[in-house]
Write a structure and sequence with these properties.
Helix 13 runs parallel beside helix 15. The longest helix is centred in the middle third of the chain and has 31 residues. The strands form nine sheets. Strands 3-2-1-12-13-7 form a six-stranded parallel β-sheet, with helices on both faces. The protein is α+β, with helices and mostly antiparallel strands and 637 residues long. The protein is built from 20 helices and 30 strands. Helix content is 39%, strand content 21%. The structure holds zinc ion. Keywords: Aminoacyl-tRNA synthetase, ATP-binding, Cytoplasm, Ligase, Metal-binding, Nucleotide-binding, Protein biosynthesis, RNA-binding, tRNA-binding, Zinc. Belongs to the class-I aminoacyl-tRNA synthetase family. MetG type 2A subfamily.
């Protein structure tokens, strides 16, 4: 058996936000690739690492907002990540946290090693600092004087710090990238890095004074400073393997690959290989870079923009349909648009229709004709070639992260099988005819191959297909190249088809209510008990209403009776605003009304809604009105 190993990591996710689609996508890619490799190599020779990045300013701020200590806060958010991956059926070998003791020890050892080698020096630095990014920006990197990520003006700060001599290794890195054309892939990101390296590389500030930041790993050679978050975070890729002495480090590091989204290209493509070089370690093999999911044209970012929660989609459509959509829809390295309608369309067309119907049709015929038993029969080879082609294409595409192509190749085989059935029409033939049996066996055999090919992408579906076909060997014991073996190698087989359950129920567009695209609350906000979910807010029907007439209510000092119009409807509303807005001031005003409040009686008058007004500490009350003219009945949201 080959001793080849495979080690693939996700970035460790920063715990200032809870998991969004971008995090889920990266982690699903690594899960898929490591599942594929576990079928190609010895399963224990494959290692999948993910985890959380837990130090830095932003974490301290988020924890303070949540009213928690940084440790309690990071424990909680890291737990949400772990739980999310579990519910999505992802299977990392390890979940690393940068606040763990072994990681802290590794970071300190790493720092000491390059400090002793003379690659760290103490100096003063003044520059434009973005507190959101926790880093200095050069004038050139700023866009119109603003942080390119946050669009905020950075603050000029000057302080004494420790610096890593990154510039010293610039020529080495350029050479390394030239000598290893697939070091960074796809190529567009390699080119981006090479073009960045055309300018001299500045040394990297790797410390933060403890007077400004406590929540970090102290420098081993000066405890008045903590380690800059990136310098701490990147080391997780080796600390997780037990560097420097771990057996796992020796086995896996020589075949290390990272997978990242393009926003963190620079730390991974420049800082990290140079850090490794300075510490006398081999660089990783490959850095694989994917694009962004765009939702309403906004970057899927933790700092701003709209967010789709992966678990909302998985709960609604099933983990496997969600997984299929993201793997099928994004071409590796390019951006893709997230659109729930497209997800439903894929689910119906590819999963329910093409695959699901094929599966049900074949199994039902075998049930009906042969009481569920089917034996292999020689002589019918109509699907052998398409199956061999699919195996070759799926393998080649998956190796280079072209998962969308791999799935397209599997679906070509699904179509070929559907066509084969339409051509041979077994449902019109005599069940006792040897050829009818052979056709149905070929179709069942191909479904077995489809399941084997599909397993890294849709593991639960593939396992259900195996159970349905009555195949007793565990799917995980079958190697990709054995997805289709000619029957003579396997000996005579008989399967017993079980009860036929549909693989994927169709989703009717009319019943599919979109999962709301949310404006991201920070993790800190989510933890505060009296916050409400957006769904709760949406239950309140706020409308613009036009006041037609207003009258005093005899005997009441505060109340005013209003007649208001909402589009075609008229209502009576009682408001306690007479002292601030006398009856004569109301007519023609457009106000904001809570339109779905249970009616109440005030001074014997039924009030069908509530008028919104703002009140400050002095008791001054101001009516809320639309900022510009808008139709009565317009929804406020
Ligand atoms: Zn910034």
């Amino acid at each position: 058996m080959s001793n080849e190993t495979f080690y693939l990591t996700t970035p460790i996710y920063y715990v200032n936000a809870t998991p969004h689609l971008g995090h889920a996508y990266t982690t699903i890619l690594v899960d898929t690739m490591t599942r594929f490799q576990r079928r190609r190599l010895e399963p224990e020779h494959v290692y999948f690492l993910t985890g959380t990045d837990e130090h830095g300013d932003k974490i301290v701020q988020a924890a303070a907002q949540a009213g928690e200590s940084p440790q309690a806060y990071t424990d909680r958010i890291s737990g949400i990540f772990q739980e999310t991956w579990k519910r999505l059926g992802l299977t990392p070998n390890q979940f690393i946290r940068t606040t763990s003791e072994p990681h802290k020890r590794a970071v300190q050892r790493f720092l000491q090693q390059i400090y002793d080698a003379g690659d760290i020096y103490f100096g003063e630095y003044g520059g434009q600092y973005c507190f959101g990014c926790e880093r200095f920006y050069t004038e050139k990197e700023l866009q119109d004087g603003r942080c390119p990520d946050h669009q905020t003006t950075p603050t000029f700060i000057k302080e004494q710090n420790y610096f890593f001599r990154m510039g010293k290794y610039q020529d080495w890195l350029i050479d390394h990238i030239h000598c290893h054309p697939d070091f960074i892939r796809p190529e567009r990101f390699r080119n981006e890095v090479l073009s960045f390296l055309k300018d001299p590389l500045e040394d990297l500030c790797i410390s933060r004074p403890r007077t400004r930041l406590e929540w970090g790993i102290p420098l081993p050679f000066d405890d008045q400073y903590v380690t800059y978050v990136w310098f701490d975070a990147l080391i997780n890729y080796i600390s997780a393997l037990g560097w420097p002495d771990g057996e796992a480090f020796r086995r896996f590091w020589p075949n290390a690959q990272h997978l990242i989204a393009k926003d963190i290209l620079k730390p991974h493509a420049i800082y990290w290989p140079i850090m490794l070089k300075a510490a006398g370690l081999l660089p990783y093999r490959h850095l694989n870079v994917h694009g962004y999911w765009k939702i309403e044209e906004a970057k899927m970012s933790k700092s701003r923009g709209s967010v789709v929660r992966p678990l909302d989609l998985a709960d609604k459509y099933g983990v496997e349909a969600f997984r299929y959509f993201v793997l099928r829809e994004m071409t590796f390295g390019l951006d893709a648009s997230f659109n729930e309608e497209a997800l439903v369309a894929r689910l119906n067309a590819d999963l329910a229709n093409d695959l699901g119907n094929l599966y049900s049709r074949v199994l039902k015929l075998i049930q009906r004709y042969y009481d569920g038993r089917i034996s292999e029969l020689p002589g019918e080879g109509g699907l052998v070639d398409p199956t061999r082609v699919a195996i070759a294409e799926v393998t080649a595409a998956t190796e280079r992260f072209a998962f969308s192509e791999a799935l397209a190749a599997i679906w070509n085989l699904v179509s070929a099988t559907n066509k084969y059935l339409v051509t041979n029409e077994p449902w019109k033939q005599d069940p006792g005819d040897v050829r009818t049996k052979a056709v149905l066996f070929s179709a069942a055999e191909t479904l077995r191959a489809i399941a084997v090919l599909l397993w890294p992408f849709l593991p639960q579906t593939a396992e259900r297909m195996f159970r349905g076909l009555g195949i007793s060997e565990p799917i995980t014991s079958i190697r990709i190249e054995e997805a289709f073996s000619s029957p003579q190698h396997l000996g005579p087989r008989q399967w017993r088809v079980g009860e036929v359950e549909p693989l994927f129920p169709r989703i009717e567009a009319a019943t599919a209510k979109p999962v709301p695209v949310k404006t991201e609350p920070t993790a800190a906000q989510e933890s505060v008990a009296d916050l409400i979910a957006i769904e709760e807010f949406r239950r309140i029907d706020l409308r613009v209403a036009e006041v037609i007439e207003a009258a005093a209510i005899p005997g009441s000092k505060k109340l005013v009776k209003l007649r208001v119009r909402l589009q075609d409807e008229e209502r009576t509303v009682v408001a306690g605003l007479k002292e601030h807005y006398p009856p004569e001031s109301w007519e023609g005003k457009r106000i904001i009304l809570v339109a779905n409040l249970k009616p109440t009686k005030l001074m014997g008058i039924a009030s069908q809604g509530m008028v919104l007004a703002a009140e400050d500490e002095s008791g001054r009350i101001v009516l809320l009105t639309p900022e510009a003219p808008i139709a009565s009945g317009a929804k406020v949201r």
